[in-house]
Amino acid sequence: MDCHYYNEARCRSCTLIETPHATQIATKRAQLERLVADARPHAADLIEWLEPFVSAESGFRTKAKLVVGGTADAPTVGILDAGGRGIDLRDCPLYGPELAAAFPVVAEFITLARLVPYDLSTRAGELKNVITTVSPDGELMVRFVTRSTEPLARMRKHLPWLLGRLPNAVVVTLNILPEHKAVLEGEREIVLTERDALRMDLGQVALRARPQSFLQTNTDIARRLYAQVAQWVDEGPAATVWDLYCGVGGFALSCVGEGRAVVGVESSEQAVLAARESAHELVEAGVPGAHGVEFVAADATAWMTGRAAPDVVIVNPPRRGIGNDLAGWLESSGVRRVVYSSCNAVTLAKDLASMPSLVPVRGRLLDMFPHTEHYEAVVLLERA
User: Fold this and answer.
1) Which of 61, 74, 112, 286 could form a disulfide with 94 if both were Cys (CB 3.0 to 4.6 A apart)?
2) What is the pLDDT of residue 170?
């Protein structure tokens, strides 16, 4: 992938961009296989490594998290340099045409609504970030992250202009982040449009993307990941399935089936609400087994304590992994199969070492984040 921002040394976020894409994947695959083998040396010869799911090299990101800099009259949307000055990245090749077309309009709206960019050094100004998500159908969710509600009246006043220039922006929100800290968004969200969620059609299932819900940033690879997990679940006894750290329900909803009880557990109430809406759509469509899926807002480790083990457990934890408590429960629970989806192979390997009775039998690398050192992995474990 060629990027003039990288060539001009204005942005070096894609640290592997000079490495051929095939070499990136081969290197990541070798690292993943080595980490798993080191964690489970006695089972290293038992695991079958499937061919990686390879992403497109450009235009694959469906979510843009852009820092706003400059001034209200000349805003930048992209990143900040070491001195806190804005670097505009609206032509970044990671984003597809729908997102790229939105960035200039968003910049014009910033000027029109007088959204003064936040200055890190003086801690003055309002607008910190703009977070934009595109659905497979080309619809957009645009979120403006500000220090307070000060710009709210002006944003409401000029919203018709924004929707006229950007008619595919079906969800627009104001997120409030009053603290001066290195996070992208705050807890309070004010929805400015009639709709409050995007419909993410992933083929086998349609998910709801609410403003603060987590979704994979590479929809094509996510679609293949959900299908892979569903296939593995269907290959053996699976009358009861748990999806822990379920987010908006991608794995759980992909595993719906006649006579099967599926429970998704997630700490984010907004994500659970979105998952329930997606499940209701399946019920309304008459999908067999859709009545058998349930979503619970709870801490995964606390929720499963004291419960009888299901046939299959799916875990998709954050980068820190599942931790000792959940790994210990899975090890002692008697559950026959576990599907572990991970965005951090180091913590994946650590967790596998804590579950010696669950043997990795199949695995796959997913090229979720091209041109960076990050990747996704999914492993099927079976009890010895």
Assistant:
1) 61
2) 98
Give strand ranges (E) for the chain.
Answer: 48-49, 63-70, 75-80, 86-88, 127-134, 140-146, 169-176, 188-191, 198-201, 206-209, 240-244, 261-266, 293-297, 312-315, 337-342, 358-366, 376-383
- Order of all β-strands in the sheet with 140-146: 86-88, 75-80, 63-70, 127-134, 140-146, 169-176, 188-191
- What domains does the chain contain, in order, with CATH numbers? 21-56+204-383 (3.40.50.150), 63-196 (2.40.50.1070)
Cα distance between residue 77 and residue 70, in whole Å:
9
**Amino acid at position 229, single letter:** V
Pairing status of strand 376-383 against strand 337-342: antiparallel
Instruction: Give the pLDDT confidence score for residue 258 in this predicted structure.
Output: 95
Map residue 169 onto helix, strand or coil: strand
pLDDT score recorded for residue 45: 87
With a CB cutoff of 8 Å and minimum separation 6, the contacts of 194 are: none
Q: What pLDDT does residue 42 have?
A: 87
Asked if residue 127 lies in contact with residue 146, where contact means CB atoms within 8 angstroms, the answer is: yes
Kindly state the tokens that stand for 271: 């994500």
Find the catalytic residue in 3, 92, 255, 343.
Answer: 343
Tokens of 207: 């998910």
Rounded Cα distance between 27 and 351, Å, is 22
What pLDDT, on the 0 to 100 scale, is given for residue 212? 87
Tell if the pTM clears 0.85, that is, is over it.
yes
Q: What pLDDT was estimated at residue 203?
A: 80
Assess contact for 367 and 343: CB atoms under 8 A. no
Q: Which of 367, 355, 370, 368 is nearest to 380 (CA)?
A: 355
Closest by CA to 267, choosing from 186, 342, 345, 212, is 212
Residue 343 annotated to the active site: yes
Rounded to whole angstroms, the Cα distance separating 159 from 238 reads 48
What residues in the chain have per-residue pLDDT under 50? none
Instruction: Give the count of alpha carbons within 13 A of 338, CB side only.
Output: 29
